[in-house]
Amino acid sequence: MIGQPAFRQIPGVDEVLCDRRVAELCEAFSRQVVVAIVRRHLAGIRESIASEGRAPTFEAVVSSIVAEAETMGSLSLRPVINATGVILHTNLGRAPLSAEARMAAELASWGYNNLELDLESGKRGSRQDHVERILCELSGAEAALVVNNNASAVLLALTALARRKEVIVSRGQAVEIGGGFRIPEVMRESGARLVEVGTTNCSYVEDYERAITSRTAALMQVHSSNFKIAGFTHTVSLAELVELGGRHSLPVLDDVGSGCFIDTTEFGLDPEPRVQDSIAAGAALVFLSGDKLLGGPQAGIILGRGELVGRLKKHPLARAVRIDKARVAALSATLIHYIRGEALDRIPVLRFIATPLSEIEVRAERWAQSLGKAAAVVPGESVVGGGSLPGGKLPTRVVAVRPAKKSGVGMLASLLRQNTPPVVGRVEKDALLLDPRTVFPEEEEDLLAAVRRAIARLEGRP
Ligand SMILES: *Cc1c(COP(=O)(O)O)cnc(C)c1O
Questions:
Q1: What is the domain range of residue 376?
Q2: In the predicted model, is pLDDT for residue 300 greater than 70?
């Protein structure tokens, strides 16, 4: 039995805890957590002896214990420099907040606040009071309700209004938004029966009308956020749906997805449904995300008729999907930018969309110059992204960094991801593309220093 002596060499828990570095760890961290990590490592040694016949050195075990505790005791969620040019990047936290929205969230998290206290009367207030009036002002809606996110907004509305009843939706709109969010599945979870009408590319008013029965609770429109059907198509306009709904006393629900208050065509983009247009066209309820084109924190915003919104507010599920104080504050600060007419200047998502090409070009040239011969400015496209504006692209200038060795581009991307702060670009063939559009000016120096360091490492320079 050659394994036996090796097993006998496994140190005891107390022996490891007496090591200087582990003892220091016990001072800085919860002792209970350190002991648990030590036990897990010792069990790991037992396993590696059993499978490989050898044990790591005592020093290696201690280092690994310290590293695990350090990792667990530091934030894994941290700021990343987004040089992908994707403005609403789902993996990178979607919309970055304005300075005012960040400050508002910080203030609301610090100490106590009047989240649900009416300071004038001293009576209980609603957290919705901090955003409802502004939302109504901006959209023209009678009432508003803000919840955790848009998926929960749709779930709440269908549960409250259409449970055990039917909701008619075009087959071409029964879509998957991404991240596994499928409209038909959310609708099913609400207990509403989804009645799909028309075909993938074509639906007509008559298709909806034929499907109306005594069990129909609503007609629904879902914005095809992330795809476009081209060629022979026909869709029913919101106005037509509202007219049909009116004749049958059925509300029309409009999930605009991203939805925004500004006119995206001003920036050469496709028209994105504007929330106020949807309300004006007669939608009974409109749903949108807080952290897509609106440019605020994660939230689901429900706008529409007072009576319907009132029913949603009273539904038990509203409590389960309610929004927290920090995001009420950040959303409120974001909406105030629209009220003050400063949205394009203050909200990063809109500022990035509105940045003129000439400005991006100047920055790209400066980056390329600072990075040396591995870098060149080339034309490219920024992407709006985040389940908004299908095919929404903006002409840009990117800095293409080509490492000397073709295979070096993967290594370059990896070195940059592991930088502090991490830098994420777009790998295309043998180049790493860096788009200035989504990089805040105050991040530029960090980004350039990181790329210069990574290039030097790939070239074997110190
Ligand atoms: C993005 C999107 C959703 C989901 O919104 P979240 O805020 O991410 O929950 C729902 N419907 C549509 C049409 C969307 O584009």
A1: 81-88+354-458
A2: yes
